[in-house]
Design brief:
Layout (H helix, E strand, L loop, with lengths): L5 H8 L24 E4 L4 E3 L2 E2 L3 E4 L2 E3 L2 E2 L2 E4 L4 E2 L3 E8 L2 E3 L2 E8 L4 E3 L2 E8 L4 E3 L2 E3 H6 L4 E3 L7 H6 L8 E3 L3
Length: 175
């Protein structure tokens, strides 16, 4: 019996060893319409780092990092500890960071600890937001003075007196 190299057989016939059709190599099919798909982060998954997607993202797990996507849907068990930038953000779980999106929907189970910048916002009864709400266009032009408090090492007398900071805060004017 004469054995032949499998690569030579593929070259001659165009069929691979695992092809269902003899004489034709299979090619992966492109997604319909070329649209980006859905990425899912399940409830059992935790990600440490930033997440970026050119499509939709559904989060039921935990992300310790920033999220950038076109469409974010967060389930009730989802936790995002970082900033969110999206075209549309539907918040159903916990967000510890800023949310910036054209359309923001905070569901009744949603909790946001941070600022929310939006063009259109819907907040369901029972939702909690601990932060500022502002339209994105208002934030783009509004740069105010910054108040900077620099902590220093405290001595025993300051600790006993309950003093939080030594010295005075510094005001930095915006140009």
């Amino acid at each position: 019996m004469i054995s032949r190299n499998p690569a030579a057989i593929v070259a001659e016939t165009g069929a691979s060893m695992f092809s269902r059709k003899q004489g034709a190599a299979t090619k992966p099919k492109a997604a319909k319409g070329g649209a980006a798909g859905l990425s899912l982060i399940g409830g059992e998954m935790a990600i440490g780092g930033d997440v970026a997607s050119e499509g939709a993202l559904h989060v039921d797990g935990r992300i310790d990092g920033h999220v950038r996507c076109v469409n974010l849907c967060q389930g009730q068990t989802g936790v995002i500890a970082g900033d969110i930038v999206a075209e549309e953000a539907r918040i159903g779980g916990l967000v510890e960071g800023t949310v910036t999106a054209r359309t923001v929907v905070i569901e009744a189970s949603g909790r946001v600890t941070g600022d929310v910048a939006y063009d259109t916002i819907t907040i369901a009864a029972g939702a909690r937001v601990e932060g500022r709400l502002a339209r994105r266009e208002a934030l783009a032009g509004a740069v105010g003075d910054l108040l900077v408090a620099t902590p220093t090492v405290r001595n025993a007398a300051e600790v006993a007196a309950g003093t939080l900071f030594s010295g005075q805060p510094t005001r930095i004017a915006a140009d």
